[in-house]
Amino acid sequence: MSDLRFEDHGVQSPAPRGFRLNKQRGKIMGVSAGIADYFGLDVTLVRVAWVIGTLVGFGSLILIYLAIGLIAD
């Protein structure tokens, strides 16, 4: 058999990703900033998507936003 060695070069595996509210970057409850962090998006794009979704969905995303803000963390 060959003499192979697997050495650790200080590279760490990424931590498991979990959804968290980001209250430091958040405006109201940190939901949009948390979603942006989780998916690796710009927080402005997420906020614009919430506004458009709220207007198109006749305000139903407001309830979803509040539910996420109260349940998460």
Compile the SSE list and pairings.
Blueprint: H1 31-39, H2 43-56, H3 60-71
Helix pairs in contact: 1-2
Structure commentary:
The structure is a single chain. The mean pLDDT is 84. The longest helix has 14 residues. The N and C termini lie far apart (51 Å). Helix content is 48%, strand content 0%. It is mainly alpha-helical. Helix 1 packs across helix 2.
The geometry reads as elongated
Structural class: mainly alpha
Please indicate the percent range of residues in DSSP E strands (runs of 2 or more).
under 5%
Task: Identify low-pLDDT runs.
Answer: none
Over all CA atoms, what is the radius of gyration? Answer: 19 Å
Mean model confidence by pLDDT: 84
Provide the descriptors you would attach to this structure in a database record.
73 residues; mainly alpha; 3 helices; 48% helix
Question: What would a concise description of this structure say?
Answer:
This protein has about 70 residues and is mainly α.
